[in-house]
Amino acid sequence: VSALLYPLLIPKLTNFYLRIILTPESYQKLPKGSSNFIISAGSTMAPLNLLLGRVYQAKKIVCMNPPFLGTKYFDLAIIPEHDYRRMHSFFSKGPKNLFITTGAPNRINLENLKEEAEELNKKIKCQNKIKIGILLGGDDQNYHISKEWTKVFLKGMKKFTERVNGDILLTTSRRTSPEVENLCKEMLSSWQRCKLLVIANETGENPVRGMLGLCSIIFTTEDSIAMSSEAASSPATTVVMKVGRKNKKHLAFDETFKNLSQGGYIHLISKEQMPELYKIALQLLSQPTKILNETEKAAQAVRKLL
């Protein structure tokens, strides 16, 4: 409702409107005085960002493109490339107030990764030098990770791990199907080189950051641009695996992955290359990827605005 009303709301009535939509406790907690900028992420907080920006006479900064509102009312909108490609026809203010990121901005911090890697290794006690991380996604409206694909993938990973005398660390996601989860347990749970197997739907444990800091090479699936961007923002060599599609249409994510690959931030493995995964992985281990740092670039855009 606030998103629809904002363009019609008289600036002098903004404070009055905030009293209506906020609880008395929340309204009382609003700081007095002015602010340099208001920053929010996602669609839910975007209308409040604009309202507070008016009250505090602050620069208004949003991460991601909020539906209904669009970006024209904001001083700066930080938009991932895949969102921009899908929705650029709705951006009425043009590129002057937009900062386009190649991947998804995230909270990956190299110092924190090192600490979390140390904590994780205390638990799992990996002795081998080469640690191989696998971030296995799942199904959504575009992608499908089948049991057959997973079987071929894990066979290749096991062969690769044996060849380099390494250890495997794997976590699934909330979207991973039960049959794929069961296959992971069947193929890895009793295998001596699998030092970590986390089934996300069975535990609240989230070892991803520890894995990103600990592993030499990370294999992730293309169904999550956020997961792939986090991996690319780590020191690990990042490999993104192509998976099944529910339809043949070209996705905005395809261009993002292509650009990340051309920029040297990830290696892309197609479904056709899966039978040769073992050999390809051996080659990629000696071809480190660059560290993606879109969050710092976005922070620089904010500093420039101020």
TrEMBL record:
Pfam families recorded: Mito_fiss_Elm1
InterPro entries, A to Z: Elm1-like (IPR009367)
Name listed for the protein in its UniProt record: Nucleoside-diphosphate sugar epimerase
Record organism: bacterium (Candidatus Ratteibacteria) CG_4_10_14_3_um_filter_41_18
